[in-house]
Amino acid sequence: MLHCDERSIRIFILAMIIVPAISFISLLQRGRVRVGVVMDMAGTMITSETVIIKGENMKISIVIPVYNEAQNIVDLIQEINGHLRDRQEYEILIVDDGSSDRTQEILAARKQSFPEMRLLRHPGRYGQSAALVTGIRNAAYPLIVTMDGDGQNDPKDIDSLLKIHKQWEPRTIKVMVAGYRRHRHDTRWRKWSSWIANTIRGLILGDHTPDSACGLKVFSRELFDRLPTFDHMHRFLPALVLRAGGKVVMMEVNHRSRWRGQSHYGTLDRLAAGIVDLCGVFWLKRRSLDLRTVDVCSAGSEQNKTLLSLCPPVGR
Question: What global pTM score does this model have?
Answer without folding.
Answer: 0.69
